[in-house]
Amino acid sequence: MELLRGHIDNFFCQCYVRHVLDVEVIEDADAATVALEPVRSRLLSELAEPASAASLAERLGLPRQKLNYHLRALEQHGLVKLSGKRKWGGLTERLLVASAQSYVVSPGAMGAAASDPARTRDRLSAGFLVALAARAIREVSALMRAARETGKRLATLSVDTTIRFRSPAERASFTGELQDASNALVARYHDPSAAGGRLHRLVLLAHPVSDSPEERS
After folding, report:
1. Measured between alpha carbons, how far is 81 from 16 in angstroms, rounded to an integer?
2. Residues 6+ apart with CB under 8 A from 20
3. Which of the 8 DSSP states describes residue 47?
4. What pLDDT is attached to residue 215?
5. Are strands 100-105 and 21-26 parallel, antiparallel or unpaired?
6. pLDDT for the residue numbered 10
7. d(CA 50, CA 85)
8. Strand-pair partners of 10
9. The pLDDT of residue 123
10. Structural domain boundaries of the chain?
11. Strands 100-105, 51-52: parallel, antiparallel or unpaired by DSSP?
12. Residue 84 near residue 14 (C-beta atoms within 8 A)
């Protein structure tokens, strides 16, 4: 008990109020460049839990000076935050933590070159599907930021499942029934003149998946 108490006495933690996101969407092109650099990407993964520069340098086998250079770049773009401080061997160490558990680079980081469904002519193409997904990332990430700033929860709906069709004919039949069902539901609930109503975007996507368990996850 005395040993434990002594260890606790040597540990000083100054807590900072923070909220680690499940997913952070990187909108800024410079921040995306920083995050995609291999060493910094590895650091974001390692900092899912608070850690000091010394422990990270030992873990990754990097010189402390080089590691601090990468950490400063991540911190300057808000991808890494101060979690607390602790005293260790007469020195005070900074404990850093990633701002989120995982990251997605928004297509908006590409600026005017970002994919846009309006620029895709073939609505049955894989490119159009990708453009729809990219638009969802852009729109939802903007709404997420606004919700965080106001302390409100963003109401969303997601359905994720897989289906193995016995034949192309059954796949086509399923597609037609799904479209009919969605059109019927939209017609039943859509009211363009509803006072206080809020417009929602509904997107249905379907694409083949690999039989590999790793790629299906």
Report:
1. 10
2. 97, 98, 99, 100, 101
3. T
4. 52
5. parallel
6. 39
7. 10
8. none
9. 87
10. 2-104, 106-216
11. unpaired
12. yes
Q: Would you state the structure tokens that stand for residue 72, as one six-digit string?
A: 């400063």
Length of the chain in terms of residues written: 217
Rg over CA atoms, the chain: 24
The runs of H, that is alpha helices, within 126-167 are 126-150
pLDDT means over runs of 10, the chain (217 residues): 38 44 90 95 94 91 93 95 82 89 91 89 90 92 88 88 95 96 96 90 90 59
CA–CA dist 187, 190 (Å, integer): 6
State how far the alpha carbon of 130 is from the alpha carbons of 126, 172, 203, in Å: 6, 21, 12
Task: Report the C-alpha gap between 215 and 217 in whole angstroms.
Answer: 6
Fold of domain 2-104: Arc Repressor Mutant, subunit A (1.10.10)
Q: What is the DSSP letter of 155?
A: P
Question: What's the token pair of residue 86?
Answer: 């602790």
| pLDDT, position 39 | 95
**Do the bridges between strand 51-52 and strand 21-26 make them parallel or antiparallel, or are there none, so unpaired?**
unpaired
Tell which residue, 15, 14, 73, 18, has the closest CA to residue 43.
73
* Dihedral sign (CA 143, 42, 11, 68): negative
Token pair of 105 as six digits: 């680079």
Which pLDDT score, from 0 to 100, does residue 84 have?
A: 87
Phi and psi at 112, nearest 5°, equal -65, -20
